[in-house]
Design a protein that fits this description.
Length: 88
């Protein structure tokens, strides 16, 4: 993933080993509007696709998986990690 995004339709299996070090794939599910009124990046991590992760598979049945970009560049999770290494 080149950016941080919220999954709003379908499901995705991602490998977050680049960020967390865990080699176990993680299932991400869509955030439904009926769940909450607003998106919170701290509590809605199971709905967020992070920059630097590898998307292994998307599942959506008859629908396509769909996400909305929330952050790009140094504002992403991976960008903040790289920034902290370059500028301690």
């Amino acid at each position: 993933m080149p950016c941080d995004a919220i999954l709003i339709q379908g499901q995705s299996i991602v490998n977050e080993a680049m960020l967390t070090g865990e080699s176990v794939p993680i299932l991400k599910q869509a955030l439904h509007r009926t769940d909450k009124e607003f998106y919170d990046p701290e509590t809605d991590k199971k709905h967020t696709l992070f920059s630097g992760t590898q998307v292994i598979r998307t599942r959506a049945g008859a629908e396509k998986a769909l996400g909305v970009v929330t952050k790009t560049g140094y504002d992403t999770t991976k960008g903040l990690l790289v920034k902290s290494i370059l500028f301690p």
